[in-house]
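Follow-up to my post from last week.
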Amino acid sequence: MKLYTWQRLFLGVLAFCLVAGGIAAVLLVQSAFSASLAREEALAVSMHAEAVAAGASPSDGDGFFGGSRLYGEGGAPSEPLPSELSPDDEALSAFVSEVTQAEGCLVRVEPAGDARLLLVGSPITRGGQLYAFLSVRDVTPLYENRHSLSVRALTALLLGSFAVAAAAGAVCALLLRPLSGVNRALRRSTSGPQELHLPERGGQELRALTVSVNSMAQATAEQTRLLQETADSRKRFADSMAHEMKTPLTSILCMADLLRIKRSVTESERLEYAGVIVEEAKRMRALSSKLLTLASADGTSPDFRECLLSELLEEVRAAMQPILDRRSLRLTLAGEDVTLSVDRQLFQTLLINLIDNAAKASADGQQILLYHTVQDGNLLLAVIDEGIGMTEAEVRRATEAFWMADKSRSRKEGGAGLGLTLCSEIVKLHDAAMTITSEPGKGTTVQLTVPLRRKAPVREKKEG
Amino acid sequence: MADILIIEDDAHVALTVQATLAMAGYGCDILPDGRDAVARAASGKYDLLLLDVMLPGEDGFALMEKLRDCGVPVIFLTARQDVLDKVSGLRLGAEDYIVKPFEALELLARIEVVLRRYHKLSGVLTYGDLRADTEKHEVTERGEPVALTPKEFDMLVFLMQHVDVAVTREQLLQAVWGYNFMGETRTVDMHIRQLRKKLHLSNELVTIPKLGYRLESRRGQ
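User reply:
Got it. Predicted complex:
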């Protein structure tokens, strides 16, 4: 049965009051009745004894409420009792015969029509004859009294029980009302716990409950937000990926189709179409190689080896030289040499990407400084350019996949928007940190903090 | 012919679309982002907008909301092939949704459908002394009506829409019988033979080896 707590409490209290109160009332009424009956009996017996001692004769009819009579052994009265006070003949004669056989006084209540009679009887001998000497007392009011008392007690009991139960239910409902508020708020927030905040009021237990619910809602909202963020960034990655793959494909496919289906293609058209195809194919090549590096940086365990920073940097410089020369950029290396434990290939990819980014941001003839020093067991390495720089908002988005500060410009330089994404992956693999500071028009500084010694000799392989 | 405005941030894609449209004889302009799009679309010069979804700044969907009141039909060009994206694109009031990468003829065919729906294209196609009325489903040669089956007629219309463009048998199948038709390309060859015979096109409707057919503009025209 689905009942509210206050309904349960109401029914429970009602049942308890009825049972307990009923038993108490019955006992009370009964004991009051028994006491008055006993009093009546005692009175009747003493009056009976007085009458006997006064030597009542069969003819005596006065001095008793109901009067007393002598009855013969057979039970026939010498004189009839007043008719309105006469018990059934049968019961009377049975009582008389009992009395004549008894030693002392007998007391009995006999019904006489609607009335109740208290009979007191004792055997006496008059003139050699054994008689039953009976005194009769009308105790009907006693019984009537008991009845009316019972009715009143029952009425009072019913009313009282209802009142108490109703009061209990009301108090309960009142006390639990905040709970329904909590429930309503919870039900409203099915769309998501983020908007759930319960007012913290009510008793200590309720307050504790709302505080717990609130903190749970907050935790869930936080969790949901994180999940949503992950999902969003995945979706963004997939969207950007689709965009980055399909845009060059569109140009390639459509231009190639034009070359195929057009009846006549002029020389300038041929050059234009084929030029687009070649450039977009190159873009796809750059994109796919970056994606492959990213996938391998993400999926394989790096091969950490001790190596000299200066050697590493010289190799990087050699790799970058053609690009730097073409733009007549100067790459300056400065700082103390140190041995560090890194994945040589990945670390070089990292540095090449950073220098490449710096080159892209720089104007022809500018300088790129690569400064490194050792501090607190870490290698601090900064790539500093004097290029166009980025705004704060751009810096925040810089490591996001496929994001480019200047799309058309990056595209021209063969960028796919994955360089810094790859860098931050490699940085993560090396337990290192990367911070970017930049000012538009002044240049960008990317600083790496790389631990010189590895905490564990071999990094645990990722799952799978 | 109709004028088309391309709103596409990738210069090469824009160039590609422009070259494709130029082949079909459409005039077109390119906008690299959505900033001037509403003003240009409202100018009344354009019969159709090709709108990229991923634009710098305001994206194509947001732009669509503003462009809706210009009364110019819009076709989305997008790399996203999510059905939901497609639905939301069409719900915004776009006429079609073309997923990149696309082939030149596919783009043209979809553009023609939309333009025809908006009656921006004449219902009568001419090719030399051939006239095809797409509304009445009639073909006349030098004024004399020629009896063609419905499929032959559709095929002729498709070829006349793409004069000097090589079309593959698959494209003809799709254009005439629809995407779900699982027919054989030999059916196409049979209809081509019929067209050549009925309309005396054996010199103009040429077979391109390994590709398909091409209706070439007549010599001397």
